[in-house]
Amino acid sequence: MTTQESHDVETPERSLLEKYQVLVSVARELTSILDLDLLLNRVGDLLRKVVPHDLFAILLYDEAREELIWKSGRGYSPESIVKLGRIPVTGCFVGRAVRQRQPVISGDVSREPDYLRVTTVGGLEPRSELAVPLIHKNKVVGAISIECTRPSCFTDEDAELLSALSSLLAIDIVNARLYEASQRDAAAKELLYEVAQQLSSILDRDELLENIAEQLKRVIDYEILGIYLVDPLSGDLILKVTRGFSAESISRLSRVPAGRGLLGRAIREKRSFIVEDTSKEPDYLPKESAGGHALHTLMNVPLLTKDRAVGVLSLEAAEKNVFNVEQQKLLDTLAGQIVVALENARLYEEISARERKLDSDLQLAREVQLSMLPDQPPHLPGFEVGTAYLPADNLGGDYYDFVRLGSLRHGILIADVVGKGVAAAMTMAASRSAVRSAAEMEESPAAVLRVANRRMCRDVRRNAYVTLCYGVLDPAEGTFSYTSAGHYPPVLIRQNGECSYLDAGGTILGMFDGTTYPEETVELRSGDVVCFYTDGIVDAFDLKDELFGEERLERLLLANHRLPAPEIARRIVEAVQEHARGRDQHDDMTIIVLKSS
User: Fold this and answer.
1) Hey, which residues does 256 pair with through a beta bridge?
2) Same fold for the domain at 3-180 and the one at 201-343?
3) What is the largest CA-CA distance in the chain?
4) pTM given for the model
């Protein structure tokens, strides 16, 4: 114990009023600190002003494991810090304060059966201890422990003072955690965006898989990694990329039979999970690292597309309890980006193979275009959806998409790529990927288009422009939030025949980096109809070179808005074809009709 420590311990008792004045001053200073580590370290500096002591420790509570985890302290020997690093609440004196949710005092710790023996830096053994729980809104956050090398060092008055401080400190810890969480969330989003940029620019699958392994290292500091892809014929998992595996493990696990082990569980259950101790898992397939040591912690994340799994990311570490829920959520999000990148790589491989065999690049581009369109509209409770897509012989660049954003909410997208041929098809693939990736990271349509536009401007070739309208339908709320990038505004027909246009939006996607997209929300009531369309509808010419036009479309919708959505879409196509009879179709015609039932 230092001279200063001895002086503090032996200082005559100050008046209770003076101590509370000090307490208020300490609390005010702690409240201003939002960095959790700085906050906890500063507690140790300031606590001595409230209650003199020789040893001090703050431990945070892990409710899932019912353990107390050392976060900060003063005066303990290095061996004691290791001993207090992670302790069950049932196995220590300070845990008694957590269990009883009130301060506990011992004037002689040698008589306490649950006391963990520790020493000071100078080798002395504590004789008395005061432990106080940190509780916020009836939930235990952690505990403070102070100890003294003299017996009967702490009083009920000390416990009262420390309890008052602990109530305020618990609030400060919760606030600091919330602040850190918001900071981590912002950093994670930026990192995910950067990783997605890297992945989306690679179209060779082998190169992509190697890059995924490197990018994952930026997200989680794993010890070994295996990227497995499902063999579509056998269902077996094929080990494609490894990091840190021993040669024997690579050979033994190069092909894992379908359904086997924890990899099979990830495929079967279609969800990620963490195994904190693989030695307790009978399904674990043992492996060693390149360094020859066994592994104990595992996290498996399936790569999911639509209703099936296409692979698994498997990360492991030698230590136990390495991975956490936040990392799991981060990888779940990244897995979606990886699937999009793999799908793009798969499409690119198909395009390259077919391009070598086909004489016409137009036919090839058309196949890519059609492969990206939904097989059928999604089921939207309380709404009907009708679609129509008629490609032109000279190959335009229309497409539409539905993006599932949860159990009910769906993104609705209609777009028209500027240009023709293979270049337009690749721009279509890039813009679809950009919007889908952005929709997984952002909630509002305005943010989705802002992020997608930034990616198109920075990562896709020049002169790759797309007009599109994107919105989010919330069937539970009966609302549709939308914005547009230079696209024809959707027509809204109310049940009573009132007509308006959804014209919020900004400039064409891919033209100007930094463009913002104003967003609006409309309420959709029973019988309301929203019609999305591309220029192939309103720009269709008849033999007199007269356009079909927006006014004809509006009249057609007013005359048919009481019909089911698929029938409305069909009648629009028939009307346009009748108008243009005798003329070649010069552009794709695409329609989405959304009707509130």
Assistant:
1) 237
2) yes
3) 105
4) 0.47
